[in-house]
């Protein structure tokens, strides 16, 4: 579904990703773990088109998307839930979701958007209660659900999430990860970037560990969870267990 | 001071005020989608008025106005496509210089096309001496046209921004440009649209006001300054604030004639703008936090 070869990317003169290669197959949950500044968010920003790839290839369902603008990539079925939610704060919850359905609106018509709205509100009942509220007044957890819901409104085949658990209370984080599992059960493919490595590896099928823009380790989640190096660097003691 | 005179001043103030508000809303629409002030905003008003006067020589008045508005919108689109669209993350200063440059070019072009003559559309109903009486005040029917059409514009814009998919897309771009692009919305097209919309409302305002104030190749500049003062006063980007601030400025200007020579009328707008910039940079309406949130 997604295949990346020797990807290079960065900001200005700063090179962040160095010859990174990875892939995501349909129906998988794949997670990328790594320390702050390792290039996890840069990777997602590059795939989504917010950052232009400097070298290498990004193939999505066989099409090269490395040079495309973000709005084009969304139309191809690849959506990003950006870091820090980025909801439309001055607009209502419903308006946020409807805008997420813009792709469907353009492809078919308004009925497809209404259908998607029902589906997302079914997935996040709390958003139904908050429908008319301004997105900026929601709690962090609700905003995260809204951001995920907004991305789902485009009916993507691949949904990428950048740090969905950031700054949220443990109980809320648990809910978010349950949602991710549920999304996969419904046939979605998920590429997840997380600092909460333990929780991410527990839901994921496979994982990639990146350090300073380079791939250092990859494998099945159980394997990574058992790897002594991963345990030492990313699953250190004192990390609250929140996924059971 | 008798009551009728006061009401007369009030009506005159509100008439000018709503025009200032429309110009300010034009500023706001472009500011919200791009983060820049389009200093050529006043030129749209002038172009609308001038084009309508010219077209009215061959066409009935309503058709001339509609066509003039459409032509001005096309000019707005062209300006954006030629001068703004291809810029990759330009600095604010560069954008300001570009829009000031555009305003000079448009003004000079207008001077070549229409020369220095002062023109005006005919009164929409009646003529210079017809008057209607409303609540004991005698006023020109054109005043009612100005108030009516501008109010309809304000309401229509509000409905557009809040209830149509296109309007919501523009608000999304104003609220969070990157997130809007991640929804598949083309931010560039929204910027073009904002220029078209600003040009359109400016041109229509220029048409309805021209029988009262007349129009000349350089009449856009003065309006742009007043409109800018109003936009600042109402809080940049806040359109309802602009309406309130526009009416306030119009009425203040109008009443200032009672205590000051008419020549100082324009100084009022500038002093108010300076005062607001010193004391409350986020405008009269809205807090500092609200100033960060762009909303139509």
Walk me through the structure.
The complex is a heterodimer of chains A (244) and B (296). By secondary structure, chain A is an alpha/beta fold. Chain A folds into two domains: 1-77 and 173-244, P-loop containing nucleotide triphosphate hydrolases (Rossmann fold, 3-Layer(aba) Sandwich); 83-155, no CATH class. Chain A is built from eleven helices and ten strands. In chain A, the strands form two sheets. A six-stranded mixed β-sheet of chain A has the order 6-7-8-3-9-10, sandwiched between helices. A four-stranded antiparallel β-sheet of chain A has the order 2-1-4-5, with helices on one face. The two termini of chain A are 30 Å apart. Chain B has 296 residues and is mainly α. Chain B has one domain (7-115, 139-292): ABC transporter involved in vitamin B12 uptake, BtuC (Orthogonal Bundle), CATH 1.10.3470. Chain B contains twelve helices and two strands; from the N terminus they run H-H-H-H-E-E-H-H-H-H-H-H-H-H. In chain B, strands 1-2 form a two-stranded antiparallel ribbon. In chain B, strand 1 (132-134) and strand 2 (137-139) form a beta hairpin. The mean pLDDT of chain B is 89.
List keywords for this structure.
heterodimer, A: 244 residues, Rossmann fold, 2 domains, 4-stranded antiparallel beta sheet, 10 strands, globular, B: 296 residues, mainly alpha, ABC transporter involved in vitamin B12 uptake, BtuC
| Biggest contact | A-B, 28 and 21 residues
The radius of gyration computed from the alpha-carbon positions of chain A, rounded to a whole number of angstroms, is 17 Å
Low-pLDDT ranges of chain A: none
Q: What is the average per-residue confidence, as pLDDT of chain A, rounded to a whole number?
A: 91
Percent helix of chain B: over 70%
Q: In which order are the strands of the major sheet of chain B placed?
A: 1-2
Main sheet of chain A?
A: 6 strands, mixed
Query: Could you name the CATH class of the largest domain in chain A?
Result: Alpha Beta
